[in-house]
Amino acid sequence: MTTRIRKRTGRSTVLAAVVVGAATVLAVPGVGHAQGTTYYLSLGDSYAVGYQPSPTPGATSGFTGVVAAAKNFQLENFACGGATTASILSFPEQYCGANDLVNNPNGYGPPALVATQGPVTGTQTQLQAAEAFIAQHPGQIGLITVSIGGNDVTPCAGASTTSPYNDATDPITCVVNGLGPIRANVTTLVDGLRTALTTADGTKVGKKVPIVGITYPDVLLGLWVNSGPSGAPANSPAFPPSTANQSLATESVLAFEGSTTLNIEGLNPALAAAYKTAKGKFVDVTKKTGAYTKLTRTTKMDIASLGLGTITVPKAVQEVCTLTWYCQLGNIHANTTGYNLIGQLVTKAAK
């Protein structure tokens, strides 16, 4: 098998808006594939890549670096920015980040840091590459994490009568209509990973390797203090929020959490159910980052980079402003503080 070193060029597909500046997370140095090494495999999208746009847009070690350091595992990162639950099963990883309109028409990328990239051969998908790695390293896989699903519903934020998506003209129905394929694809993914582990290590050992799925901070809560992609100027700090932005921020919580009262299934319950099929664990990052706190619970906030002075906002909004770049520049990715928190949550779940 030949190992491909993937290009780091290309554009990252984001959930809601433009790429913006941030401080980077320190990379975990690559080490040799020594016999006896315990490996940590990462699959997924730009959150798994650890994407941050400053000082130069691209990959950092993100939450995976935090986990690898805490567990003392060698990271093999197969993730690709912009990945969806469909592309993780179908897109040839060798083209991740490639400026190639034929083989990468959706502009997936960037891949993980070169120092932490997992080996990919030929037209292998993320799942196939991970399965091959597991087969070649029996008894050496200590942890697998997956960050996927957000890009499947990204366009739902803009669903309207003039721009329908998923056969829906509103964000909530759009998300709900997309949950079937998301659930099916994630189930296929985690079942494939678990089968690879039990085949390589035997059923008893293979069932014990943690597979941990994560979701995301509810960045659209940041619309409370950001003009969003339709603002003038777009994606800039603004307060008070427009009626439309406040409404979308409120609906975003329902899209993640769902509601038994309204008979609405959210993204996170659907993901949790899919991971459970293969005895995987699920970290509800949305909940852990305070998004489910009632929006009537307010606090005073003064973040210098926003330039808005001291304002009163929902506590959940303050949390997302602290952990991501959305409030400042309309970017959906976690900042260093956010990735570190996600890493700590995953490390705890992986025990």
CATH architecture: 3-Layer(aba) Sandwich
Multimerization status: single chain
Residue fraction in strands: 5-15%
**Overall 3D shape:** globular
Care to count the β-strands? 9
CATH class category label = Alpha Beta
Please count the helical segments. 13
**CATH fold node name:** Rossmann fold
- Spatial gap, N to C terminus: 33 Å
Give start-end ranges of low-pLDDT stretches.
1-33
Helix content: 25-40%
Brief digest:
With 351 residues, the protein is an alpha/beta fold.
What does this entry look like structurally?
This protein is α/β, with parallel strands linked by helices and 351 residues long. The strands form 3 sheets. The protein has a 5-stranded parallel sheet with strand order 2-1-3-4-7, with helices on both faces. A two-stranded antiparallel ribbon has the order 5-6. A two-stranded antiparallel ribbon has the order 8-9. Strand 5 and strand 6 form a beta hairpin. Helix 2 crosses helix 13, helix 4 packs parallel to helix 6 and helix 6 runs parallel beside helix 9. The chain is globular, with a radius of gyration of 19 Å. The protein starts with 38 loop residues before the first strand and ends with a helix. The N terminus is likely disordered.
